[in-house]
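Private note to self, pasted from the team thread so I don't lose it. Backbone tokens:
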């Protein structure tokens, strides 16, 4: 901190209450206005993120399973990996998610670290879902992955498909059977697939 003793005169505190006395200019000793950035260098942010990755590995979630052996039922806590998330990382770093997003947009000194960290989190979730360690539906949504099938007509425009109830399907199958356009075995197969 700079020696600013010649630019302000500290007034001290009131002994009985501990409050600053009028005229206290201690705030002028600060070299800049506002809160200091949490991470001033990329290596500091990278080390903190690696600490989160380690904490994540060291603190799995536990699923209770019932195990039966020779007629005795026992509850066993089975460790399951914890999915890494940006929200979890931000909580670990004691920053808001908006701060992380602001750093990504306005801190070119941190951009490479931020990109690598986001890649590590993405990869951990993707591989965990692919190995059935995580719920693949939840992870696919989180990662923005989805299977999209679009049916198009002759002109290339999408065809709108309205949902059909089970009752309506049964009614249509019965109509096809009556018209002789569907064999009973095929109708039975349709019923088993529902």
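Design output:
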């Amino acid at each position: 901190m700079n020696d600013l003793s010649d630019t302000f005169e500290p007034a001290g505190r009131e002994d009985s209450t501990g409050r600053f006395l009028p005229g206290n200019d201690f705030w002028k000793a600060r070299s800049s206005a506002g809160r200091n950035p949490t991470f001033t260098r990329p290596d500091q942010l990278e080390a903190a993120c690696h600490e989160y990755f380690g904490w994540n590995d060291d603190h799995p979630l536990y699923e209770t399973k019932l195990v039966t052996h020779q007629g005795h039922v026992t509850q066993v806590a089975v460790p399951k990996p914890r999915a890494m998330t940006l929200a979890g990382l931000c909580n670990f770093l004691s920053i808001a998610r908006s701060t992380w997003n602001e750093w990504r947009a306005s801190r070119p000194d941190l951009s490479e670290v931020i990109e690598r960290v986001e890649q590590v989190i993405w990869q951990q979730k993707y591989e965990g879902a692919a190995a059935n360690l995580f719920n693949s539906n939840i992870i696919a949504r989180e990662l923005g992955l989805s299977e999209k099938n679009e049916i198009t007509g002759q002109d290339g425009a999408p065809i709108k498909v309205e949902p059909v109830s089970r009752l309506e399907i049964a009614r249509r199958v019965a109509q096809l059977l009556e018209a002789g356009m569907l064999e009973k075995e095929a109708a039975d197969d349709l019923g088993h697939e529902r």
